[in-house]
Amino acid sequence: MSIETSSDERRNGQKTLVLAVIAGMCGNAMLSWFTISEVAFSIFPLIALVLSVQALYQEYLNNPVTEDVPLVGLAAFFVGAFGHSAFTKAQYPDAGSNFFSIIVVLLLLFWIGKKLGYILKQE
């Protein structure tokens, strides 16, 4: 996403990234329910996962994809998944350490910020 892109294209890219983060968080919430005994079942992550994946698919069908969006979207998905994992492990310390999850989230956020031009802007 370069500076020359229109505001509609930028908004669509941001929408895609937010939906990817939501899908990652919901996917990890469902995985946490299966793997961590302290986490109770909730239907809401499943509903949000289905709706976010459906919205991502509709976004893919209706709008052209710029060259950076697929890789940055995958990174945003992993930011959501590892971010929720770190949050869950902070709530339930017996589930394990959240150090690796936090480091992965920070590295991915730095890379996304650099790729989108928010960090280390090139003149």
UniProtKB/TrEMBL annotation:
Transmembrane portions of the chain: 16-34, 40-57, 69-87, 99-120
Domain of life of the native organism: Bacteria
InterPro entries on file: DUF1422 (IPR009867)
One Pfam family matching this protein: DUF1422
Protein name according to UniProt: Inner membrane protein YijD
Protein keywords: Membrane, Transmembrane, Transmembrane helix
Keyword Transmembrane found: yes
